[in-house]
Amino acid sequence: MPLGRRPRPFSHADWLFEIKWDGFRSLVHVEHGKCKLISRNGNELKSFSGLNDALASEFKARSAVLDGEIVCLDDDGKSQFRELLFHRGEPCYVVFDLLWLDGGDLRYLPLIDRKQRLRSLIPSRGERLLYCDHVEHHGERLFQLACEQDLEGIVAKRKFDPYLEHHTSWLKIRNRSYSQWVGREKLFERERGGDPDFHVWDGCALACASAGM
After folding, report:
1. DSSP secondary structure string for all residues of 66-118
2. Which of 26, 50, 83, 142 sits a CA distance of 20 to 30 A from 70?
3. Class of the 4-211 domain?
4. Beta partners for residue 4, in sequence order
5. Do the beta carbons of residue 161 and residue 111 sit within 8 Å?
6. What is the pTM of this model?
């Protein structure tokens, strides 16, 4: 599901709001006790074998497809992008949606129902698999808190939408003062080798994988 952009936060009773995690967006495919991480462009991210094993053991289902973000968190629970990019920290997976579960296609269910099912499957004290919680209605307040904590921003989602691109709108609202954006463009250019057609986020992830970092 792609993310659109909105310049300013808002509040609305029909929307829910989540923290925007600063990492690599990835689907997770769980099947027969094994796990694969798949990038937004459909590439398997093979450099996270330890995370694959951890997710397969922590997730409470035989088969599933999840949507979330690969991140490295510091002691305060904040994403540290460079730690993830250069594999200097222990990655974990923050999951915010459930698309498929034990043979059942959940994409047509309302988001709020998918998240309720997802939460019941995530261990309350998981080490590498974490549930992305949300608030309803109060997007402006959550955005204010995200800025105060120097986080990347928030994501707004209509809580009754299915997981279908032509019926769904997810909006990212960025904290323009986010400190980890400083120098990010130069970092991306170096990792993607100056190729203007190489998608920035996917490029960084694959650069790590190909370098064995």
Report:
1. EEEEEE-B-TTS-B-HHHHHTT-S--EEEEEEEEEETTEE-TTS-HHHHHHHH
2. 142
3. alpha beta
4. 171
5. yes
6. 0.86
